Amino acid sequence: MASTRNVSGCIALHVPTSNSATAITGSIANVHSSNELEPGGPKRMPRRVERRIRICAQTIATAAIQNTKLASVLAIRASSPVAAPDSTERRLVALGRPDQYVQRMNSIPVGEPRTELKRTLGVWSATAVVIGSTIGSGIFRSPAGIADKLPGPLPMMMVWVAGGLFALCGALTMAEVASALPMTGGIYVFCREGWGRLAGFLFGWGQVVMIRAASLGAISITFAEYFFRVSGFDPLAPANVMKVRWLAAGAIGLTGVFNYVGVRFAATVSNVTVIAKYGGLVFIVIVALAVGLPQTGGHYTPAIPAGSLTMAAFGLALVSTLWAFDGWADLVYNAGEVKNPGRNLPRALIGGTLAVIVIYLAANMAYLAVLPIETMRHSKLVA
């Protein structure tokens, strides 16, 4: 007597979490039923049994496809510069969704080679990115506002020290996160991996249309005003207002062209501009302390004039200080282009931030050596 074969279940899909992929097998368990064939031929299989057979067949087919995709993903990862899968990839592989990781990270079909940026930035170029991104209009424009809120040498220096400590704490934190996720995109990647794709999407668009747009506009306007003043023109004259804005827009466009040409060229330009900016501040400090200080004797007393230090004013001045230190985290957006990111990213972030703190404190000491507080608080462009 023959017996019909019903399907009671399928062997579950097994996905390994190591770098080596093993074949994923699936089979239909055979369960002998007590129903026997009639002499006229086999009985028609019940609909529920047919449905279960179809489900099991789909499971086996999915297992085979998933195994092929997993093998392709792990083979690509093994041949890429970053061979070991990170914790996020391991979690997705363990859940049987290795393809979703590659699709989410790169928006390319699984099984196709992933295009990765070349890691060409060394530790010095990375440090130059930190310094160059941080030193901008803040150190030239913020001292006037800070002196207006805290009209005393010691309170003014205290708020700069506080801002530097905040920036250093941020750099230490960012160094830890960036070395764990050394991917191009920086904070966008951190938001996406920590809170999901929606958070990363919103942050990315916020950066494009608000945060970065306003920041670049302010920095470029300050650059254009200083350029006009150095050239012997008044940037605030009605006839020059639109010219200042056009020059600022052109500076933004030119910087974009530098970055579009290539990483090496942009890094070279960044190194040159960093030397110019940092060297310019060093020159100001040396001249002010060597020439101005002997003539004026400095304006460091009284250290804390009456009414020059309140918590509310200190908090408002701290905002201006943090604006001047803004940019210390910009290197993480280029983390995918930094050589040996686990070693170089922390060094560049921490070293660059410390270098900026030192020159900012020295610059403010130089300002006080030449200008009294009352003059600084009414000067829009101190330097």
Describe this structure in words.
The chain is built from 13 helices and two strands; from the N terminus they run E-E-H-H-H-H-H-H-H-H-H-H-H-H-H. By secondary structure, the chain is mainly alpha-helical. It starts with a strand and ends in a 6-residue tail after the last helix.
Keywords:
single chain; 383 residues; mainly alpha; elongated
Please give the structural blueprint.
Layout: E1 3-10, E2 28-36, H1 47-79, H2 87-94, H3 98-106, H4 123-134, H5 138-149, H6 153-180, H7 187-195, H8 197-230, H9 241-261, H10 263-296, H11 311-325, H12 341-370, H13 373-377
Antiparallel strand pairs: 1-2
Task: Give a quick rundown of the structure.
By secondary structure, this protein is mainly alpha-helical.
Largest sheet: 2 strands, antiparallel
Q: DSSP strand (E) fraction?
A: under 5%
Helical segment count: 13
The largest sheet has its strands arranged as 1-2
* Global mean pLDDT: 76
Which regions contain 5 or more consecutive residues with pLDDT less than 50?
A: 1-39, 80-113
Can you give the helix content as a percent range? Answer: 55-70%
Number of E-type strands = 2
Topology as a string of helices (H) and strands (E):
EEHHHHHHHHHHHHH
- The end-to-end distance, rounded to whole angstroms, is 102 Å
Radius of gyration: 31 Å
Principal-axes shape call: elongated
Q: Label the structural class.
A: mainly alpha
